[in-house]
Write a structure and sequence with these properties.
Layout (H helix, E strand, L loop, with lengths): L9 E5 L6 H14 L5 E3 L2 E3 L3 E3 L5 E3 H10 L10 E5 L4 E6 L2 E7 H6 L7 H13 L5 E4 L17 H7 L2 E7 L5 H10 L3 H4 L2 E9 L7 H11 L3 E6 L26 E6 L4 E2 L5 H5 L3 E6 L2 H5 L3 E4 L1 E2 L2 H10 L2 H10 L3 E5 L1 H5 L3 E3 L10 E3 L6 E16 L2 E13 L9 E2 L5 E2 L1 E4 L2 E4 L8 H8 L15 H19 L2 H9 L3
Helix pairs in contact: 1-2, 1-15, 6-8
């Protein structure tokens, strides 16, 4: 079924960070797809360590890749033309149209004027290209829309909505408290011109009896002069990839019987933690995150994940004793897998002679692989296929066998290149993110521990699982918002 009716772009803006904008936008991408439209996501500027490679080999924020997946389309840099990847408390790598263009101090970046690049023009042009191909554009704001001190430099919230002629729906999080003040204040602090763009309110993460909020809903509509389009209950049984890694350390670290216990090492600059979402759902596996040496001892498999700062995190692993604990656990029978920066750490050494990452020029690695890595300024971003399935690369640095060690690639890529290094079924590394989304590779990783897996625990189809979750999310949101009113807003020409 196709629907040729033209809809306005819609922006889901927030009263603050972590109110659920990304997930709500993903839900509407799937809803519009189900209703016969051809939606596409858009966020002008994203700040995240969790990124993804497009089919063309460029880098965007993972949230927009998830939303594109919900919309049933390939992701593209026009969906997230500007990505900031934090490198410290004050600096970020700036990625424009999928390519890194350098590092920026936060103060200089927000001052604008210090660059010869017109970021506003770049993101608006990307939106225009996207809007010519898809209908509707499902836009996502960033943080709070009421940071009035940043109004003149804001690229992603109401100024972007003005350019797009978008209808703005404000998302408020009732679970954190203060929803009346945050919603009313967010609207009241806008200029009259921007206030007119806000066409509705969605209250997110409601717990308890909905009837208790009936009066509150009317009060909000009265004081804000904007309809409440829905009150979406909090859910626990729908799984959508998260943009932020806040809750990782809260996952249970208690080893479980009849399962393979997998420890993902918590790094200071851990990135692309969605590499482990499929493994976490696999019924054969109990996965947890830790940087505690005692917890590492409990693991059958230890995974060193990707990082935005390999040398800094390697130094920290040595300082906190995790490096020694990983080597000891491997010696006693645990398997170790390194992905991207974690693969680099598993070698004999990591070199940074040109100070690409910082001041550390050399550190010894864990010595589990006979490899050496040299950092360089070139960033490799591409989607790849191999004998186990698909994945993507996002990394800086080159890794090669050290000394007289012979090549022993873990993966044979379809473009003719080899990737990674394998010593045996319990010691290996790869640059390919997403490799654990492929059941054949997970089967290979779990094979040494097959005797620990209870009968009835079967391989896990992550692709089918994700499709089911997008449909469940769409059904959940559709049940609690007024879709008829939303469609009226998006087609109103007044």
């Amino acid at each position: 079924m196709s629907n040729n009716r033209r809809l306005h772009p819609v922006m889901f803006a927030g009263t603050g960070s972590d109110v659920g904008k990304s997930v709500v936008a993903a839900a509407f991408c799937r809803i519009f797809k189900q209703d016969g439209y051809t939606p596409a996501p858009f966020k002008a500027q994203n700040m995240a360590l969790n990124s993804y490679a497009t089919p063309e080999g460029f880098e965007i924020g993972r949230a927009q890749a998830v939303q594109a997946e919900a919309a049933g389309i390939p992701c593209h840099t026009d969906m997230n033309p500007l990505l900031l990847k934090p490198q410290s408390d004050h600096t970020s790598q700036v990625i424009l149209h999928g390519k890194p263009i350098g590092n920026k101090n936060a103060y200089d970046y927000w001052r604008r004027g210090t660059s010869d690049i017109d970021y506003r023009r770049e993101v608006c042009t990307a939106f225009d290209r996207l809007a010519s191909r898809y209908n509707p554009i499902v836009m996502e704001g960033a943080g709070s829309i009421s940071e009035i001190n940043l109004r003149d430099t804001d690229l992603v919230n109401l100024p972007m909505a003005r350019h797009a002629h978008a209808d703005v729906i404000l998302v408020g999080d009732i679970d954190r408290g203060g929803v009346f003040a945050s919603v009313y204040g967010s609207i009241a602090l806008q200029t009259p011109e921007d206030r007119r763009l806000i066409k509705g309110i969605i209250i997110n993460k409601f717990r308890g009896d909905m009837r208790l909020f009936d009066e509150g809903r009317k009060m909000l509509e009265d004081i804000c002069g904007v309809p409440v389009l829905g009150v979406i209950p909090y859910y626990k049984d729908i799984y959508i990839e998260e943009e932020d890694s806040v809750a990782l350390a809260q996952k249970s670290m208690q080893a479980e019987r009849d399962k393979v216990n997998v420890a993902v090492i918590m790094l200071c600059h851990l990135s692309n933690y969605t590499d482990f979402d499929a493994l976490e759902r696999d019924p054969r596996v109990h996965l947890f995150y830790t940087n505690n040496t005692e917890d590492i001892k409990k693991a059958d498999i230890i995974i060193l994940p990707g990082t935005k700062s390999t040398l800094h995190d390697l130094y920290e692993l040595r300082r906190n004793g995790c490096a020694q604990a990983i080597v000891r656990a491997h010696r006693e029978g645990a398997a170790v897998l390194g992905i991207c920066g974690g693969y680099q750490m598993m070698g004999m050494e990591v070199l940074d002679p040109d100070h690409v990452e910082g001041d550390i020029e050399r550190l010894p690695g864990l010595g589990l692989l006979p490899t050496t890595t040299t950092m360089n300024g070139d960033k490799h971003t591409r989607q790849v296929s191999c004998q186990y399935g698909q994945g993507y690369e996002i990394h800086q640095g080159e890794t090669h066998p050290m000394g007289d060690a012979k090549p022993s690639p873990l993966l044979h890529l379809n473009d003719g290149r080899d990737d990674g290094y394998i010593v045996d079924g319990k010691c290996m590394g790869t640059y390919v993110h997403g490799i654990l989304d492929n059941t054949p590779f997970v089967d290979f990783l779990l094979e040494p521990f097959h005797d620990k897996i209870s009968e009835g625990n079967t391989p896990f189809d992550y692709a089918a699982f994700k499709e089911e979750q997008y449909d469940r999310l769409a059904a959940h949101v559709r049940q609690y918002v007024d879709m008829e009113q939303i469609y009226n807003i998006l087609t109103d020409h007044d």
